[in-house]
Amino acid sequence: MGLSFGTKTPPVALSGEVVVSGLGKSYGASRVLSDVNLVMNEGEVVSIIGPSGAGKSTFLRCLNYLETPTEGTIAIGGAQVVAGGKLPDKASLDHLRRVTGMVFQSFNLFPHLTVMENITLPQRKVLGASKEQAQAVTEMLLKRVGLPEKAKAYPARLSGGQQQRIAIARALALSPKVMLFDEPTSALDPEIGLEVLAVMRDLADEGMTMLVVTHEMHFARDVSNRIMVMGNGGVLEIGPSEQVMSEPQNARTRQFLKAVLDR
Ligand SMILES: Nc1ncnc2c1ncn2[C@@H]1O[C@H](COP(=O)(O)OP(=O)(O)OP(=O)(O)O)[C@@H](O)[C@H]1O
Protein backbone atom coordinates (compact mmCIF):
# COMPACT_ATOMS: atom_id res chain seq x y z
CA MET A 1 0.00 0.00 0.00
CA GLY A 2 1.31 3.48 -0.87
CA LEU A 3 4.60 2.28 -2.25
CA SER A 4 6.91 4.97 -3.49
CA PHE A 5 8.13 5.39 -7.00
CA GLY A 6 11.31 7.26 -6.27
CA THR A 7 14.67 6.81 -7.84
CA LYS A 8 16.18 4.53 -5.19
CA THR A 9 15.07 1.21 -3.84
CA PRO A 10 13.27 1.55 -0.48
CA PRO A 11 14.87 -0.16 2.52
CA VAL A 12 14.00 -3.84 2.64
CA ALA A 13 13.30 -4.30 6.34
CA LEU A 14 10.60 -1.86 7.32
CA SER A 15 8.96 -2.26 10.67
CA GLY A 16 7.54 0.29 13.03
CA GLU A 17 4.96 2.98 12.50
CA VAL A 18 7.63 5.50 11.54
CA VAL A 19 10.89 4.56 9.85
CA VAL A 20 13.06 7.42 8.69
CA SER A 21 16.47 6.68 7.33
CA GLY A 22 19.27 8.87 6.09
CA LEU A 23 17.06 11.95 5.85
CA GLY A 24 18.83 15.05 4.58
CA LYS A 25 17.76 18.52 3.56
CA SER A 26 19.65 21.33 1.85
CA TYR A 27 18.49 24.76 0.78
CA GLY A 28 20.81 25.38 -2.15
CA ALA A 29 24.32 25.17 -0.73
CA SER A 30 23.06 25.41 2.83
CA ARG A 31 22.80 22.00 4.52
CA VAL A 32 20.27 22.01 7.36
CA LEU A 33 19.68 18.27 7.96
CA SER A 34 22.13 15.39 7.58
CA ASP A 35 21.55 11.67 7.95
CA VAL A 36 18.65 11.79 10.40
CA ASN A 37 17.38 8.34 11.38
CA LEU A 38 14.39 7.45 13.53
CA VAL A 39 12.30 4.32 14.09
CA MET A 40 9.12 4.64 16.15
CA ASN A 41 6.76 1.90 17.21
CA GLU A 42 3.01 2.24 17.15
CA GLY A 43 1.81 4.12 20.23
CA GLU A 44 5.20 5.61 20.96
CA VAL A 45 5.66 9.28 21.84
CA VAL A 46 8.97 10.89 20.93
CA SER A 47 9.82 14.48 21.84
CA ILE A 48 12.35 16.36 19.75
CA ILE A 49 14.31 18.96 21.67
CA GLY A 50 17.39 21.02 20.92
CA PRO A 51 18.64 24.54 20.42
CA SER A 52 17.16 27.05 18.01
CA GLY A 53 18.23 26.37 14.43
CA ALA A 54 19.01 22.71 15.11
CA GLY A 55 16.65 21.59 12.35
CA LYS A 56 13.79 20.26 14.52
CA SER A 57 10.95 21.93 12.58
CA THR A 58 12.56 21.22 9.25
CA PHE A 59 12.82 17.54 10.14
CA LEU A 60 9.17 17.36 11.17
CA ARG A 61 8.04 19.25 8.06
CA CYS A 62 10.06 16.94 5.83
CA LEU A 63 8.09 13.95 7.14
CA ASN A 64 4.89 15.03 5.37
CA TYR A 65 6.62 16.98 2.62
CA LEU A 66 5.76 20.45 3.82
CA GLU A 67 9.47 20.72 3.12
CA THR A 68 10.93 18.52 0.41
CA PRO A 69 13.76 16.40 1.78
CA THR A 70 16.84 16.13 -0.37
CA GLU A 71 17.66 12.54 0.45
CA GLY A 72 16.65 9.58 2.58
CA THR A 73 13.57 7.42 2.93
CA ILE A 74 10.39 7.95 4.92
CA ALA A 75 7.89 5.23 5.80
CA ILE A 76 4.91 6.20 7.95
CA GLY A 77 1.85 4.08 8.66
CA GLY A 78 2.20 2.09 5.43
CA ALA A 79 3.02 5.11 3.28
CA GLN A 80 6.53 5.02 1.91
CA VAL A 81 8.53 7.63 0.05
CA VAL A 82 12.09 7.80 -1.19
CA ALA A 83 13.28 11.38 -1.14
CA GLY A 84 15.14 12.78 -4.08
CA GLY A 85 14.77 16.53 -3.73
CA LYS A 86 11.46 16.59 -5.57
CA LEU A 87 7.87 15.73 -4.77
CA PRO A 88 6.97 12.06 -4.96
CA ASP A 89 4.11 10.89 -7.16
CA LYS A 90 0.68 12.16 -6.14
CA ALA A 91 -0.60 8.85 -4.75
CA SER A 92 2.39 8.46 -2.41
CA LEU A 93 2.20 12.09 -1.32
CA ASP A 94 -1.56 11.92 -0.67
CA HIS A 95 -1.09 8.73 1.32
CA LEU A 96 1.75 10.19 3.38
CA ARG A 97 -0.35 13.24 4.20
CA ARG A 98 -3.37 11.12 5.07
CA VAL A 99 -1.47 9.11 7.66
CA THR A 100 0.14 12.16 9.29
CA GLY A 101 -1.84 14.75 11.22
CA MET A 102 0.01 18.00 11.76
CA VAL A 103 -0.45 20.63 14.45
CA PHE A 104 1.40 23.93 14.08
CA GLN A 105 2.55 26.55 16.54
CA SER A 106 0.13 29.06 14.99
CA PHE A 107 -3.04 26.87 14.86
CA ASN A 108 -3.79 27.74 11.20
CA LEU A 109 -7.58 27.53 11.48
CA PHE A 110 -9.67 29.13 8.72
CA PRO A 111 -10.87 32.41 10.31
CA HIS A 112 -13.99 32.72 8.14
CA LEU A 113 -15.27 29.24 9.04
CA THR A 114 -16.89 28.09 12.26
CA VAL A 115 -15.27 25.43 14.40
CA MET A 116 -17.71 22.87 12.96
CA GLU A 117 -16.86 23.92 9.40
CA ASN A 118 -13.11 23.91 10.10
CA ILE A 119 -13.29 20.30 11.21
CA THR A 120 -15.87 18.98 8.74
CA LEU A 121 -14.24 20.55 5.66
CA PRO A 122 -11.18 18.26 5.46
CA GLN A 123 -13.34 15.21 6.13
CA ARG A 124 -15.62 16.12 3.23
CA LYS A 125 -12.79 17.10 0.86
CA VAL A 126 -10.25 14.41 1.67
CA LEU A 127 -12.38 11.49 2.86
CA GLY A 128 -15.50 12.26 0.83
CA ALA A 129 -17.55 12.02 4.04
CA SER A 130 -21.21 13.06 3.98
CA LYS A 131 -22.23 16.18 5.89
CA GLU A 132 -23.95 14.07 8.55
CA GLN A 133 -20.97 11.72 8.97
CA ALA A 134 -18.53 14.63 9.19
CA GLN A 135 -20.70 16.44 11.75
CA ALA A 136 -21.02 13.33 13.91
CA VAL A 137 -17.24 12.80 13.89
CA THR A 138 -16.71 16.50 14.68
CA GLU A 139 -19.09 16.39 17.66
CA MET A 140 -17.24 13.38 19.01
CA LEU A 141 -13.86 15.08 18.55
CA LEU A 142 -15.03 18.31 20.16
CA LYS A 143 -15.97 16.30 23.23
CA ARG A 144 -12.60 14.62 23.13
CA VAL A 145 -10.74 17.94 23.25
CA GLY A 146 -13.13 19.28 25.88
CA LEU A 147 -14.91 21.88 23.72
CA PRO A 148 -18.32 20.40 22.81
CA GLU A 149 -20.03 23.78 23.15
CA LYS A 150 -17.86 25.60 20.61
CA ALA A 151 -19.15 24.08 17.34
CA LYS A 152 -20.74 27.31 16.13
CA ALA A 153 -17.99 29.67 17.29
CA TYR A 154 -15.54 31.39 14.95
CA PRO A 155 -11.82 31.01 15.78
CA ALA A 156 -11.41 34.71 16.67
CA ARG A 157 -13.85 34.22 19.56
CA LEU A 158 -11.73 31.47 21.08
CA SER A 159 -8.63 31.69 23.26
CA GLY A 160 -5.32 30.52 21.79
CA GLY A 161 -5.49 27.33 23.84
CA GLN A 162 -9.01 26.62 22.59
CA GLN A 163 -7.95 27.28 19.00
CA GLN A 164 -5.08 24.87 19.37
CA ARG A 165 -7.39 22.17 20.77
CA ILE A 166 -9.64 22.72 17.75
CA ALA A 167 -6.58 22.37 15.50
CA ILE A 168 -5.82 19.06 17.19
CA ALA A 169 -9.42 17.91 16.64
CA ARG A 170 -9.18 18.94 12.99
CA ALA A 171 -6.01 16.89 12.52
CA LEU A 172 -7.60 13.89 14.27
CA ALA A 173 -10.66 14.08 12.00
CA LEU A 174 -8.73 12.38 9.21
CA SER A 175 -7.80 9.43 11.47
CA PRO A 176 -4.05 9.82 11.10
CA LYS A 177 -1.72 7.06 12.21
CA VAL A 178 0.87 9.51 13.50
CA MET A 179 0.42 13.00 14.92
CA LEU A 180 3.18 15.54 14.28
CA PHE A 181 3.27 18.51 16.65
CA ASP A 182 5.50 21.50 15.87
CA GLU A 183 5.92 23.50 19.08
CA PRO A 184 2.17 23.42 19.76
CA THR A 185 2.32 25.54 22.91
CA SER A 186 5.05 28.03 22.01
CA ALA A 187 2.58 30.77 21.03
CA LEU A 188 0.56 30.37 24.24
CA ASP A 189 0.87 31.71 27.76
CA PRO A 190 2.28 28.93 29.94
CA GLU A 191 -0.99 28.50 31.83
CA ILE A 192 -3.03 28.25 28.62
CA GLY A 193 -0.44 25.89 27.18
CA LEU A 194 -1.23 23.44 29.98
CA GLU A 195 -4.73 22.75 28.61
CA VAL A 196 -3.23 21.86 25.23
CA LEU A 197 -0.61 19.67 26.87
CA ALA A 198 -3.38 17.90 28.81
CA VAL A 199 -5.16 17.04 25.54
CA MET A 200 -1.86 15.77 24.13
CA ARG A 201 -1.26 13.69 27.23
CA ASP A 202 -4.73 12.12 26.83
CA LEU A 203 -3.94 11.33 23.22
CA ALA A 204 -0.70 9.68 24.25
CA ASP A 205 -2.55 7.66 26.91
CA GLU A 206 -5.01 6.51 24.25
CA GLY A 207 -2.10 5.07 22.26
CA MET A 208 -1.60 7.66 19.53
CA THR A 209 1.84 7.62 17.93
CA MET A 210 3.20 11.13 18.38
CA LEU A 211 6.27 13.07 17.34
CA VAL A 212 6.49 16.39 19.17
CA VAL A 213 8.93 19.25 18.66
CA THR A 214 8.81 21.00 21.98
CA HIS A 215 10.50 23.31 24.43
CA GLU A 216 8.31 21.91 27.24
CA MET A 217 10.80 19.86 29.20
CA HIS A 218 8.17 18.54 31.59
CA PHE A 219 6.14 17.16 28.71
CA ALA A 220 9.27 15.71 27.11
CA ARG A 221 10.25 13.95 30.31
CA ASP A 222 6.86 12.93 31.68
CA VAL A 223 4.80 12.09 28.61
CA SER A 224 7.20 10.97 25.91
CA ASN A 225 8.76 7.53 25.88
CA ARG A 226 11.92 8.79 24.25
CA ILE A 227 13.63 12.10 23.64
CA MET A 228 15.54 12.86 20.48
CA VAL A 229 18.01 15.70 20.85
CA MET A 230 18.93 17.55 17.69
CA GLY A 231 21.82 19.91 17.07
CA ASN A 232 23.43 21.27 13.91
CA GLY A 233 21.03 19.43 11.63
CA GLY A 234 21.67 16.00 13.10
CA VAL A 235 20.68 13.76 15.99
CA LEU A 236 22.93 14.35 18.99
CA GLU A 237 21.34 11.52 20.94
CA ILE A 238 18.12 9.63 21.41
CA GLY A 239 17.08 7.54 24.36
CA PRO A 240 14.49 6.91 27.07
CA SER A 241 13.21 10.29 28.29
CA GLU A 242 14.29 9.85 31.88
CA GLN A 243 17.77 8.83 30.85
CA VAL A 244 18.28 11.69 28.39
CA MET A 245 17.09 14.20 30.99
CA SER A 246 19.10 12.84 33.91
CA GLU A 247 22.16 11.30 32.25
CA PRO A 248 22.66 12.85 28.82
CA GLN A 249 25.49 11.17 26.95
CA ASN A 250 26.40 13.99 24.62
CA ALA A 251 28.29 17.08 25.79
CA ARG A 252 26.17 19.39 23.65
CA THR A 253 22.99 17.84 25.06
CA ARG A 254 24.30 18.52 28.59
CA GLN A 255 25.04 22.11 27.65
CA PHE A 256 21.59 22.58 26.11
CA LEU A 257 19.73 21.01 29.04
CA LYS A 258 21.71 23.03 31.54
CA ALA A 259 20.81 26.23 29.69
CA VAL A 260 17.07 25.47 29.49
CA LEU A 261 16.71 24.00 32.97
CA ASP A 262 18.62 26.88 34.60
CA ARG A 263 16.31 29.43 32.94
N1 LIG B 1 13.34 28.16 3.79
C1 LIG B 1 14.58 28.15 4.29
N2 LIG B 1 15.64 28.52 3.55
C2 LIG B 1 16.89 28.50 4.05
N3 LIG B 1 17.22 28.07 5.29
C3 LIG B 1 16.20 27.68 6.06
C4 LIG B 1 14.84 27.68 5.62
N4 LIG B 1 14.06 27.20 6.64
C5 LIG B 1 14.90 26.94 7.66
N5 LIG B 1 16.19 27.22 7.31
C6 LIG B 1 17.36 27.05 8.18
O1 LIG B 1 17.40 25.72 8.61
C7 LIG B 1 17.96 25.65 9.91
C8 LIG B 1 17.02 24.84 10.79
O2 LIG B 1 15.83 25.58 11.04
P1 LIG B 1 14.63 24.95 11.88
O3 LIG B 1 13.53 25.97 11.90
O4 LIG B 1 14.32 23.61 11.39
O5 LIG B 1 15.28 24.85 13.32
P2 LIG B 1 14.59 24.55 14.72
O6 LIG B 1 15.48 23.59 15.43
O7 LIG B 1 13.18 24.14 14.52
O8 LIG B 1 14.66 25.97 15.44
P3 LIG B 1 13.59 26.71 16.43
O9 LIG B 1 13.64 25.99 17.75
O10 LIG B 1 14.17 28.11 16.53
O11 LIG B 1 12.26 26.69 15.76
C9 LIG B 1 18.14 27.08 10.39
O12 LIG B 1 19.50 27.42 10.25
C10 LIG B 1 17.29 27.87 9.45
O13 LIG B 1 17.81 29.16 9.25
Strand content is 15-25%
Roughly how many Å is the radius of gyration?
Answer: 18 Å
Number of strands: 10
Q: Label the structural class.
A: alpha/beta
Order of helices and strands: EEEHEEHEHHHEHEHEEHH
How much helix is in the residues?
A: 25-40%
Could you name the ranges where pLDDT drops below 50 across 5 or more consecutive residues? 1-13
Mean pLDDT: 91
Bound molecules: adenosine-5'-triphosphate
Question: What is the makeup of the main sheet?
Answer: 6 strands, mixed
What general outline do the C-alpha atoms trace? globular
Strand order of the largest sheet: 6-7-8-3-9-10
Distance linking N and C termini = 47 Å
Question: How many DSSP H or I helices?
Answer: 9
Question: In words, what does this structure look like?
Answer:
It is built from 9 helices and 10 strands. It is an alpha/beta fold. Helix 4 (131-144) packs across helix 5 (160-172) and helix 5 runs parallel beside helix 6. The chain is globular and about 55 Å long. Mean pLDDT is 91; it is low at 1-13. The structure holds adenosine-5'-triphosphate (ATP). InterPro entries: AAA+_ATPase, ABC_ATPase_HisP-typ, ABC_transporter-like_ATP-bd, ABC_transporter-like_CS, MetN_ABC_transporter-like, P-loop_NTPase. Its main location: membrane. Belongs to the ABC transporter superfamily.
What does the secondary structure layout of this molecule look like, with pairings?
Blueprint: E1 18-27, E2 30-40, E3 45-49, H1 56-63, E4 71-76, E5 79-83, H2 90-99, E6 100-103, H3 115-127, H4 131-144, H5 160-172, E7 178-182, H6 190-205, E8 209-213, H7 217-222, E9 226-231, E10 234-240, H8 241-246, H9 251-262
Parallel strand pairs: 3-8, 3-9, 6-7, 7-8
Antiparallel strand pairs: 1-2, 1-4, 4-5, 9-10
